[in-house]
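Fold this sequence, please.
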Amino acid sequence: MQQIFSRLSQQFLQRLKLIVPPNKYQSVLNSYLEKRPITIRVNTLKTNSRKLRDELLQKGIKMQVVSWNPNTFILPEASLHDLTKLDLYNSGYFYVQSLSSQIPPLILLPKPGETILDIAAAPGSKTTQMGALMQNKGKIFANDTNPIRLDKLKYNLGIQGVTNTETITKYPNQIERDYPDIFDKVLADVPCSGEGKIFLKDPKSLGGWSEKKIRGFAKIQKDILKAAITATKPGGKIVYSTCTLSPEENEEVINETLTKFSGKLTVEKIYIPGLSVTNALTKWNNVNFYPSIQNAIRILPSDLMEGFFVASLRKLRS
């Protein structure tokens, strides 16, 4: 056991002890050994939970309901390989998506008729989820700058039957220039170091972790979030999320952004009934954060959930 944990550097473990509540440290560490079960999101553009459940049960696929998200099932015995052979999968009646990944769109809660920007959209898990929430009414601009990932995004939009979405390819400075004060809501699910998705039996999931990489991601994240806020209408909402634990990529990004947009932003409380969360950190590296950052949430890695950070911002004025 210790041999496999040794794949995590002492630097990483020391940081983890400072980030995670002491009573949760060992369970978070143990989660890095767990292969989480497949979870799927019902595509409500094509079916509903009851119909999909009945069809999967007929095929002998067992499932568990997620209390805080009725359009999601946990498939404890299913394999991705077997699911991809199903017509239901290939026809887009469901989407294989982790539980944590589904949280940011639920918090953003795009509504039919709204104009939405998904600023780092590929491969489209959250974009297709938002299209379903909007019932294909309104407009989503789905942005990504990687051509291969953009192709995957377009493919997923097609399979899922999402028709209210236009794909674009713009860098943060271009978003700021081309879309000032345009969008009702913006999702900024940003690239990150992925500390919430580590699986120690797959060494590649560590991704060559280092503090230098964390700092590099933090710079990218600040630029993306700045563009997301600039593109949002006054009164509009921005949801910022990562799948990492690093405060430099989470609370610090929000803290610096609140300073940059002084008096123009507020951090709103997040509440999803039945969802277990921990509070955001109040300080890091002897820097105290704005008190309102406590309204953001952390999802700790577990046997079911990837680690995630989510903050909901309201743009008060331009």
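The chain has twelve helices and 15 strands. Residues 2-35+99-315 form a domain with the Rossmann fold fold (CATH 3.40.50.150).
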